[in-house]
TrEMBL record:
Transmembrane segments: none annotated. Pfam families: ROK. PROSITE patterns: ROK. It comes from Lentilactobacillus buchneri subsp. silagei CD034. InterPro entries: ATPase_NBD, ROK, ROK_cs. This is ROK_glcA family protein. Belongs to the ROK (NagC/XylR) family.
């Protein structure tokens, strides 16, 4: 009889859930709004509703599930299955995600950081295949990373390896939810890019973006990217500043971890070369030459499925171990 894995990527905006066979091929998948503002219990109920819907679509029960994996942003105790803190969620503190869902499902449930499960996905089926030294950087609502060295995913003393979004770039910069100021993720992220544009418009700079906003369009990175494509000087300036700052951050990553592959993923990576050309230029002058030449910059291949399939792969590794 066929057995299955559940894989869930929990985001601040959407829950992305998938049902996978024993070879981690997608059987069913769905997206559901997170409604994080409603608090942890409502978010957990919505996750469980996703799992129930996936099983119902395939006409299976919990008995057919081998394990479930969940990718969650923020700090966590992986062994205890507790999500300690996530800046993307309201009133989210010490949430016992694994136990709560395991009690519902009746099968093993494992949690990990959302970027690490993306790495597991890219290692299994995407840009990380065949490599042993990889750093995956995701640029979405926030900025995070996951690190594979000599074939081993790094976790650290508090499961915090890869928090490059909290690399301090400005001593007295924008305040961050972590309690510090000037963190890289406050500039290089969807929120950060939007904030940079808002600051320029507030300073009196003109932009197509401002015109489009006056017509009722929402300020997003996609809107800024659209303005960049039309050669809008202010939008280009936003991308240049963001791309250069990312280059300085990635230069530190290359110097520290010496990866053979550096994968760029997350929703903002869709901006592509108009943003990353400034990153490449900065890297060329601000990272160790030997380490830089050994490292290839790649784009993530799995898109928004990486977290789902990666969470399932992670659960499979844990339950088999």
């Amino acid at each position: 009889m066929t057995k299955y894995y559940l894989g869930v990527d929990l985001g601040g905006t959407n829950i992305k859930a998938g049902l996978f066979d024993e070879d981690f091929q997608t059987v069913q998948k769905l997206h559901k709004p997170t409604h994080e503002e409603a608090g942890p219990t409502e978010v957990l109920n919505r996750i469980w509703a996703c799992c129930q819907q996936l099983m119902a679509q395939e006409k299976i029960t919990s008995d057919d599930i081998l394990a479930a994996g969940f990718g969650i942003p923020g700090q966590m105790d992986v062994e205890k299955g507790i999500s300690i803190f996530s800046p993307n969620f309201t009133d989210w503190k010490d949430v016992p995600v694994a136990k709560w869902l395991q009690d519902k499902l009746g099968q093993p449930v494992f949690i990990d950081n959302d970027v690490r499960v993306n790495l597991y996905g890219e290692m299994a089926f995407g840009a990380g295949r065949g490599h042993r030294n990889v750093v995956l950087v995701t640029i979405g609502t926030g900025l995070g990373a996951a690190v594979l060295i000599n074939g081993q995913v790094l976790y650290g003393a508090s499961n915090s390896v890869g928090e490059i979004g909290h690399m301090n770039m400005y001593r007295h910069g924008r305040p961050c939810a972590c309690g510090s100021t000037g963190c890289l993720g406050r500039y290089v992220s969807a929120r950060g890019i939007v904030k940079t544009m808002q600051e320029k418009l507030a300073d009196g700079q003109t932009s197509l973006v401002g015109e489009w906003m006056s017509q009722g369009q929402e300020l997003t990175t996609k809107l800024i990217s659209k303005a960049v494509a039309k050669g809008d000087p202010t939008a280009v300036e936003v991308f240049k500043e963001t791309g250069e700052l990312l280059g300085f951050g990635l230069g530190n990553v290359i110097n520290l971890f010496n990866p053979e592959t550096l994968i760029l993923g997350g929703g903002v990576s869709a901006a592509g070369e108009p943003l990353f050309k400034y990153t490449r230029e900065t890297l060329a002058h601000h990272s160790l030459p030997v380490a830089r030449e050994a490292c290839k910059l790649e784009t993530a291949q799995l898109g928004d499925e990486a977290g789902m399939v990666g969470a399932a792969v992670y659960a499979g590794q844990k339950v088999r171990a």
